[in-house]
Amino acid sequence: MTHDDAAEGTTLGEDVEPTAGRLAEEIRRRRKAADLSHAQLAMTIGYSREYVRRAESPRKGLPSVDLVRALDHALGDDGTLLALREQADVARQARRRSRAGSLVAGMSMSAIPTTVSGVPALALDTSGGADTEVAVQAPPGRFFTGTSIAARAYPASDDGRILTTVPTGFADDMFLRRPRRGLVIGVTKNEHGVGLFGLDSRQARRRLAGAPEGARLLMSRAYALDDLTLGILWAVANLDEALLDDDATLSASRGQLAVYEQSPRSAAGCEIAADLAPASRMWLGSQFCASHILRHTDTLTGMPAFWTREQRGEEASTWLLFAHKYDYLRQSASTASGADAGPTRAFCVPASAVANSSRPERILLLLAVALMESFGITVDVCAEPEYVAVPGFVFDGHRRAIVANWVGADGIWQVDVTDTPPLLREFADATGYARSHSIAAAATPSERLHALADYLDLDWAWLVHRCRELGDYGSAGIAQPRSRLLSTEGVDQACRFLAQADQVGR
Hints:
The protein is of the alpha+beta class. The chain has three domains: 3-99, 434 Repressor (Amino-terminal Domain) (Orthogonal Bundle); 103-225, no CATH class; 235-442, Endonuclease, Chain A, CATH 3.30.870. It is 45% helix and 15% strand. The chain contains 20 helices and 16 strands. It has helices at 3-7, 18-33, 38-45, 49-55, 65-74, 80-99, 174-177, 201-208, 227-245, 247-256, 278-296, 313-321, 323-334, 351-355, 359-374, 421-436, 445-455, 460-473, 476-479, 489-505, and strands at 103-104, 107-108, 123-125, 133-138, 147-158, 162-164, 182-190, 193-200, 217-219, 266-268, 305-307, 344-348, 378-382, 393-395, 401-405, 413-418. α15 packs across α20. The longest helix is centred in the N-terminal third of the chain and has 20 residues, at 80-99. The termini are far apart. Mean pLDDT is 83; it is low at 1-16, 96-121 and 126-131. This is Helix-turn-helix motif. It comes from Kibdelosporangium persicum. It holds the Pfam family HTH_31. Residues 27-82 form the HTH cro/C1-type domain.
């Protein structure tokens, strides 16, 4: 028996759909019959070990069709796994429909929509049973492996405040006491329809502590579940779970990787962090690249021009949520204090990336840009796909450039410090083109952000209003991180800046 098998047994309970359980068991059985570990099978099919491990855990949700197709091809190529996956999906949909009339705290489940305003980023799963617990699904992405957020839904009234009727003694309920993420949802109904408002379980417990018996749970209207808050919750939940699971490994790996810091040029392959979830590898690569740039910034001879490779909100959410990236932006901006012109940062976001991103993802990308602008960094965005492959760099415009890649890198990171003329020419051409052809070209941050919102097909007036609300109350009220490596400080600063910049720009 491999270490994977000893640690990853599949145990089915009443809360697991039987057909999904059979799919997970069959994947596991075939892998063991082929004498493959999770890591070996992952390498064979081109996915991460984490995806394979989760495919054998039915509580993590159904694996994607593409993943099951790859597993089927590697473990028999007879279509059995795909057939089981289709049966499990049919059974899941039927179970959801049959549960739709279940009572939750005296409220019909049919009153709770299974999606929110058509938002694809998260959706309520009402198949959890006839008690008060539902689930908010945070699906996988390109790096996120997906997770499920336990939730309790209760009826609420709206008199300008959201007052949610929770059970007596709810402050001491184990739902609010358990360490993992939870969400309390207040459901309002009026002539305009159903409204959903969320509150992080830790925040809910704090608000109920010491309250008299029968007191309702006060929520803010800023925490309406919509494209803005769901996008933030999607990113926080996925990053949080991965970083919490990998916390000890990440801590150990940072010491092991210290040797790389002694060299101005290094590349780290995925094998050095094979057991980490993809999101944890993102953190490791991002942290190393940020440190590399800061270590070598004093070698630059002019105001730096940055080039970054994020194209979608999933990757860009790291600017908003990784604590080290917030500190990195602050330190980078401080080096330019007192100068006539500040640093610039360029993105390449082709139209195809916009078309293939959900609305919550596009909001996350805009907020990441707003955060940079809040530090005095002028952001240019070009749309030409020819610039997608340009590596991430910091260029002084004269003699030297710092190369730092973790998005789209072959391994965990690839960094360098270079004065090679052809590379400097390439970097000068890229930054010059982005500056002269930016779809966000304008004189003020507000105008640049507004132009970018139009390009991303986002409702500017609505977004300004919602960012003002959320910035005032703070996003931790709905998406408080558990990992010490995450912070919502960047999200809140971005929201406040976007709202304030709009007022200044008028």
